[in-house]
Specification:
Layout lengths: L1 E7 L5 H14 L3 E7 L4 H7 L8 E5 L6 H11 L4 E5 L3 E3 L4 H6 L8 E3 L2 E2 L10 H11 L3 H4 L11 E5 H8 L10 H10 L4 E3 L4 E3 L5 H20 L9 H11 L3 H19 L6 H18 L1
Parallel strand pairs: 1-2, 1-4, 2-3, 6-9, 7-10
Antiparallel strand pairs: 4-8, 5-10, 6-8
Length: 296
């Protein structure tokens, strides 16, 4: 038995749900597919309402915008089955055996199973290069490598988890914002949960424009810093966080803060260009978190 849960915000999910439904019906398992719209534009919602024609599928619309965390929590609480498969609305399964790969692990002892992320081989238009470049270098990682540090790359856009565990951990995220996947991974690790990665990717189709994505990166770093200030993170495999902590211990955070203040415009020029350098992005994030820590 499997509950497929899809949080939605301003995204047409008809193609995704059609593909998933075909695979679910072929699998011959007991399933439900629940889609919760977080108060999208009415034109999008009207299109998405068509999916209710699919068997064992329901589509709900929130009465206002609650955010990603609360929407996922509501989906989990509505689910009738013990295993939850969360998928973002802007993805598409890479394999025609996508559901079968997950259902083969329904009886496994793993608490959470992550399928992975994939990106189109063809680069997008220049204005979307930052998201694509970061995704292909940092998120499109084989399961063999992900399993070496299982709590490091935990992408909530494609994973299966037990219902009780998700509700327990997700309820500890009490703020709205971007970048809480890192915290969820830290919670899984500190809770000593078993995490397993498989090569069962979804294509990430909803690439953000460069400037929009850079803003989200800054938000995710702000989230990480807020969690550190509140002493919410006990243990994590996040490279940025651990490097920042090491720099702070050596008081090198002052140097990196100065670097951000002095070179942020040069960094941004590269990152918003048609050929962003991931090394520049990593340096930008590290100097940004040091600057924010000392100046916020």
């Amino acid at each position: 038995m499997l509950s497929v849960l899809i949080p939605i915000y301003n995204c047409d999910i008809r193609a995704l749900t059609t593909v998933l439904h075909e695979q679910l019906m072929s699998s011959q398992i007991v399933f439900e597919m629940i889609c919760l719209d977080d108060y999208s534009d009415k034109k999008i919602s009207a299109l998405n309402a068509e999916i209710e024609q699919l068997q064992f599928t329901s589509y709900h619309i929130s009465d206002h915008n609650f955010g990603r965390v609360a929407t996922r929590q509501a989906l989990a609480e509505q689910a009738n089955y013990e295993r939850l498969l969360f998928l973002d609305a802007d993805v598409m399964p890479k394999s025609e055996h996508f559901i079968a790969h997950y259902t083969s692990l329904l009886a496994s002892a793993y608490d959470a199973i992550y399928g992975g992320f994939a990106y189109a081989l063809e680069p997008p238009k220049d204005d979307f290069m930052l998201r694509w470049t970061y995704g292909t270098s940092n998120e499109q990682v084989p399961a063999l490598i992900r399993n070496q540090a299982p709590f490091k790359i935990v992408i909530s856009a494609n994973f299966m988890i037990t219902k009780a565990l998700f509700i327990t951990l997700n309820s500890q995220i009490t703020q709205r914002g971007y970048g809480y996947d890192n915290y969820f991974g830290a919670l899984l690790k500190s809770n000593k949960n078993t995490v397993f990665h498989i090569d069962n990717e979804v294509y990430h189709l909803g690439l953000e424009a460069n400037e929009s994505y850079l803003n989200k990166i800054e938000q995710s770093v702000d989230t990480l810093l807020k969690l550190e200030i509140n002493k919410s993170i006990q243990d994590t495999e996040n490279t940025l966080y651990n490097t920042y902590k090491s720099l702070k211990k050596l008081r090198l955070n002052y140097v990196f803060s100065w670097i951000y203040k002095s070179f942020k415009n040069s960094f941004k020029k590269n990152l918003l260009s048609s050929k962003p350098d991931i090394r520049v992005l990593q340096f930008y994030k590290l100097s940004y978190i040091c600057y924010q820590d000392l100046n916020s």
